[in-house]
Fold this protein.
Amino acid sequence: MIVYSVTCLVDDSIHDEWVDWMKSEHLPEVMATGKFLTHQMFRIDPHDINDDGTSYNIHYTLEKREDLQDYSVNFGPELKAKTLAKYGDKVIAFRTVLESV
């Protein structure tokens, strides 16, 4: 099992809109690619209440790494570009691939 983990730091000025957009548009678009088995979205508990923004982590599960490669080549760039066009630097994301052992 592979987990494609995306961590996002979301600026407070767009927080509520971003969460709604993730749930109603982005996550359904990602799942519609047919590459992922499931997804879960988590709010990351802040270590410091003075931190700016709110962090989230989204786990997408896949059966095999080839599905992630296909997603990364054929779907990911367009979906990332849509997010960047909509939110610019108000959302900072980094991605990690996890493999169960």
Strands lie at 2-10, 38-43, 54-62, 91-99. The longest helix spans residues 15-32. The chain has a mean pLDDT of 94.
